[in-house]
Amino acid sequence: MTVLGSQLGRQLRGQRRTLAVAVVLATAGVGLSFPTPAHGAADPRAGSGASASPAAPQSAAPYIRRGITIGRSVRGRAIRAYYRGTKDAKHVLVVLGQMHGDERAGRRTAWWVRDRVRPRDGTGVWIVPSMNPDGNARGTRTNARRVDLNRNWPTSGWSGARRGTRYWGGPRPASEPETRAMIAFLREVRPDYIASIHQPLYGIGRHRGGIRWQERLSRNLDLPRRFFGVGNPRGTVSPTLTGWYSARFRDHGVATTIEYGARPGRRFVTVKAGRGITAAARVR
């Protein structure tokens, strides 16, 4: 069980987005405070007719920089998450740099956002450089148990077929510790936007939710909007992070796949993508 799921989850049960509690990391014994996403903010997914940011407070809210371990991989490697932003954030972006260990460019985007972006008042960014540290270490798409983490999410479209391939969804939904760590994390944070970065299909995932968010991403990153299917039966929810989150939290937020090309340039994966994603989410 993850630190977040076992400790933070118990403290936050019944609280929708309030994260202003002390979190004691069992592995380090360090007290950390989570930022508190505030209630009642205007929907940042709305168009130009809606307020993209709240009215400025009389005094600037405290700015927070935090790093925590949200779980462990099959081999025990830490899955780290970093927060940058206002303590009482009105809306929040999550940048996931890597889910497949052989898709490395998104990690560079995540590190750049962590180190270079200071979100504006009232907003915050959580950065997860990799949720598959074992796959990253081995250079494989799958985790250490040869499960495709982007087919392992507990939705109606999950399947345990294709065992022995790069696309096996695992022995059961959410069977993998990496998936469970991200589920617990996202349930507590409940971001307004999730940017899940992949390679090499070159596009912005097209889906029904968050059209203007997708359009902003497409424009900022110069990537076309495209449909990325995973072969789940018609009428079921894709067993992916974006499918799970967008279905479960459709009234609150949206998760979108960003597919870089096979060999994106250094400036693209750092400056262009980092600025483009955070600007599209209206956190800078």
Report what the structure shows:
The structure is a single chain. By secondary structure, the protein is an alpha/beta fold. 26% of the residues lie in helices and 19% in strands. The protein has 7 helices and 10 strands. The strands form 2 sheets. An 8-stranded mixed sheet has the order 3-4-6-5-7-10-8-9, with helices on both faces. The chain has a two-stranded antiparallel sheet with strand order 1-2. Strand 1 and strand 2 (31-33) form a beta hairpin. It is globular and about 50 Å long. Residues 1-8, 10-34 and 39-58 have low confidence and may be disordered.
Short summary of the structure?
With 284 residues, the chain is an alpha/beta fold. It contains seven helices and ten strands.
Our Rg estimate from Cα atoms comes to: 18 Å
Mean pLDDT: 84
Number of helices: 7
What characterizes the major β-sheet?
8 strands, mixed
What percentage of amino acids are in beta strands?
15-25%
CATH superfamily: Zn peptidases
Per CATH, the architecture is 3-Layer(aba) Sandwich
Distance between the termini: 34 Å
Query: H/E order of the elements?
Result: HEEEEEHEHHEEHEHEH
* Helix content estimate: 25-40%
CATH topology call: Aminopeptidase
- Pick out the low-confidence regions: 1-8, 10-34, 39-58
Shape: globular
SSE arrangement:
Elements: H1 3-12, E1 22-24, E2 31-33, E3 63-72, E4 78-86, E5 91-96, H2 105-116, E6 123-128, H3 133-138, H4 177-189, E7 193-198, E8 203-205, H5 211-221, E9 225-226, H6 241-248, E10 254-259, H7 266-280
Parallel strand pairs: 5-6, 5-7, 7-10, 8-9
Antiparallel strand pairs: 1-2, 3-4, 4-6, 8-10
Helix pairs in contact: 1-4, 2-7, 5-7
Keywords: Carboxypeptidase, Hydrolase, Metalloprotease, Protease, Zinc
Cofactor: Zn(2+)
Biased composition (Low complexity): 40-58
